[in-house]
Amino acid sequence: MPPRWPREPDRNDPAYRKLDDRMNFAVHVALFAACNSGLWFFRIFLDANWSWTTWVTGVWLAALFAHGVYIFALANYSLDSHG
Question: Distance between CA atoms of 51 and 46, rounded to whole angstroms?
Answer without folding.
Answer: 14
